[in-house]
Prior knowledge:
The longest helix has 15 residues, at 80-94. The protein has one domain. The protein is built from 1 helix and 9 strands, in the order ββββββαβββ. A hairpin with a 5-residue loop joins strand 7 and strand 8. The protein is mostly beta strands and 159 residues long. The strands form 2 sheets. Strands 2-1-7-8-9-6-3 form a 7-stranded antiparallel beta sheet, covered by helices on one side. A two-stranded antiparallel ribbon has the order 4-5.
Amino acid sequence: MAVAEAGISTLGVKLGYAPETSKGVKPSSFTWLERCNSIGGIELSTEQIDASALEDEISRYVQGRQDTGGEWTVTFNLTDEVVEQLESMITTYTSLDPGMRMWFEVWSPYLSKGFYVVAQPPKHIPMPEVGQNELQTVELSFTIEEYKGMDDAIEPVGK
């Protein structure tokens, strides 16, 4: 069967966050972080486990776990409203009950599934680079706790 669509646009993609309300369970709603400029990808490199034995003249391997690299970067257009939203997200994270985690979703209006990541946001908003005649953006570095992959999409909404 041939694929009908050639591809999809990134127009309309949203990034949302939500604290867990039940330990380990995907939240049922997400808060939209507006003016997101770019969302870094998460690569999954597969580790190889050496399964060679003494009689093997050539090394043999079995598949090991997949590694995300541990860091996820997201860039935002810098405005006062965006700073308020980012500070609210950081405050929500720092006030989580012990054992609860923060979920993030990359949502597309063209897909029935979203991408889910459990991550720790930075503790502070970093100072961005400033250049001549450029858009002022800020890049946040999140620590990936667990890449959940794709699941049913939940459109993030503003506060």
